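[job 0417] fold request received: 4-hydroxy-tetrahydrodipicolinate synthase
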Amino acid sequence: MFHGSMVALVTPMQVDGSLDYAALERLVEFHIDNGTDAIVAVGTTGESPTLNEADHCEVIRKTVDFAAGRLPVIAGTGSNSTREAIDLTLAAMEAGADASLLVTPYYNKPTQEGLYQHFKAIAEAVAMPQILYNVPGRTACDMLPDTVARLAKISNIIGLKEATGDLQRAQEILDRCGDGLDLYSGDDATAREFMLMGGKGVISVTANVVPKAIHEMCAAAVAGDRAKAEELDAPLAGLHENLFLEANPIPVKWALAEMGLIGHGIRLPLTVLSDPHHDAVRQALRQAGVL
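[job 0417] inference complete; emitting structure tokens
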């Protein structure tokens, strides 16, 4: 259903932390102009942990409105509360989002059966396409391939964002789920290989700053053109590394501010990128042809 470069979009803010919808509209146009294949609104990169429910739903609604059907919008609606995840997913569907992205419940450490029942309950409550999201490095909760295979049998669970960076695991899920589930990389550094193995795309942080390059690299990788994909990805290696020098989205928001696309607003407990990392991020932007 979805493929290619899906940007994990930042949520622009003023210096005081208030939401900057004018900048959000500029970002949506930036991605449309540069070939991004879909926008993921209010995921981890969109600072979902610090947006209250009203902000969360409004950013999704505004993103859908700004996109105006020109590219799909996937709404981050995950929570460690099943009831809250259902409420957010219902709100996203009502706002016109094309799908939801549901992270594994963080902090409370459910069992594999708990994960199955959590995602099953959301899928049964909200009749929209749903993409699961496994990122144990942030959530302290790892959804194992057996659980993914069970969930792939639910008709409106259509994809998985696998962000472990473990290509062996990705291959196992591909082998087990076949055409029953679309797999997307959630790790920019390994995304090229993930797609060459059979993944359908990447939900990308790097695409925030180099959308055209990520779109072209994804198109080559999904088509199985290894040589072209490697050639396009090579100048982006510095971004894949240095946009994670501090917790995402700290470096990527700073990079976008350097590019003049957004201001320096970010919500506590996150802070603006530390001075010692500025040169490394600038150099990665230059290497990628941005500055």
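[job 0417] notes: The radius of gyration is 18 Å. The chain has 13 helices and eight strands.
[job 0417] exit 0
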